[in-house]
Amino acid sequence: MQRRLPPGPPLWESTLNMRRFRENRLEFFSSLYAQYGELCYFQMGPQPICLLNAPELIKQILVRDYRSFKKGRFLEMAKDLLGEGLLTSGGEHHDRQRRIIQPLFHRQKIRNYAETMVKRAVLLREQWQANQEIDMAAEMMRLTLAIVGETLFNADVEGEAAELGKAMYTVLETIKMVGNPWALLVRKYQLNTPGRRRLMAAQAILDQTIAEIISQHRQGKSNQQDLIATLLEARDSEGNGEGMSDKQIRDEALTLFMAGHETTANALAWTWHLLAQHPRVMAGLKQELQHVIGDRLPDVEDLSQLRYTRQILTESMRLYPPAWILGRTALEEYTLNESYYLPQGAVVIMSQYLVHRDPRWYTQPESFLPERWSEAFRHSLPKFAYFPFGGGPRNCIGEAFAWMEGILILATLAQKWEAQAIEAHPVEPEPLVTLRPRYGLKMKLIQSR
């Protein structure tokens, strides 16, 4: 049988596709998925794209044939900010960096950061006031920023290192906008806009901070065990036994900061939104926390017992996966199966948001049902029917860190607080680099009895 391109809208709709994509990305991809199924080939302007949401083909591209693809265009543009870190690099450089850094995220290593996560969550819950109206999305961002500031830089970004905190926030806001048309023009022509000037100033502060920390450690003037210190000590045991240069450490530190902050914050924010809509689930969470933890603070030893807490986060990331989309570019003509092929340069888009709501894998796919995540159900799912952290050799290296952080933060805050939705406040997902609430999440705090 002669192979052909997958089905999809006609070529003459390429300009219309660009407009629909700009107006509402989720709606655009969802409509293609509904009309053409798990494999859809189309063009946006001159760029060929394949929306691919079949778990077995996702596994094929991310695991079996990952060397036939490079990372997507967004990550190429992110190199301006992040350099050649794990998120943006490829080939032998990526493989070497992955070998060096992987042991640092072993479960036994990251357990050391649990105390910081709980401590920061306690500081936040003590600041909250009964009946106070807050933006839960902003509060979770502030919390995870404080945690990554302390674990990565050993700095209190809400206290004496407030300037560093502002710089970190500026870089995050810029990363979110990478890929929109104006950002592309600013990048291409190096336009001297106020936003670009703010970014350059923020980047200089981050670079100086990282350089000073590296220098102190190299000169033996610091005994702090932050993540930068751990990166300094890491060696390529399977290669030449060498460590990383200061530039490589800088790139990896910025990458860990960016990847380890906003994703967890958005996961937690959407979780609070869902809990406010489902008081039965909130009651079940409270019951588990009382049974496992009681009146003390949670710690790393409780993680295995907080099963319902984990199920709640799992289901929240099914409905609102922070990383809602993955992109790869075909390095050469690629055979998908016996029927279809992709041309060289085609962009493959795999969407967690779409796959996680597929009724083939999930009964009542639009419903928030944490109880569905039994061990039997997990084992029944195809490998890539649930993949909030990606998969294959390039999957998220901080997955275990993120699970620990999410569970400990949710447990610590939910011991003392519930949140009510404010009815008049619009809630809509905004699919940028991560899936964030477009208008924030205005909520009213209710102190637990």
UniProtKB/TrEMBL annotation:
Key words, A-Z: Heme, Iron, Metal-binding, Monooxygenase, Oxidoreductase
GO MF annotation terms: heme binding; iron ion binding; monooxygenase activity; oxidoreductase activity, acting on paired donors, with incorporation or reduction of molecular oxygen
Binding site for heme: 396
Gene3D superfamilies (alphabetical): Cytochrome P450
Cofactors that this protein relies on: heme
Family to which the UniProt record says this protein belongs: Belongs to the cytochrome P450 family.
Name the record gives this protein: Cytochrome P450
Native species: bacterium (Candidatus Blackallbacteria) CG17_big_fil_post_rev_8_21_14_2_50_48_46
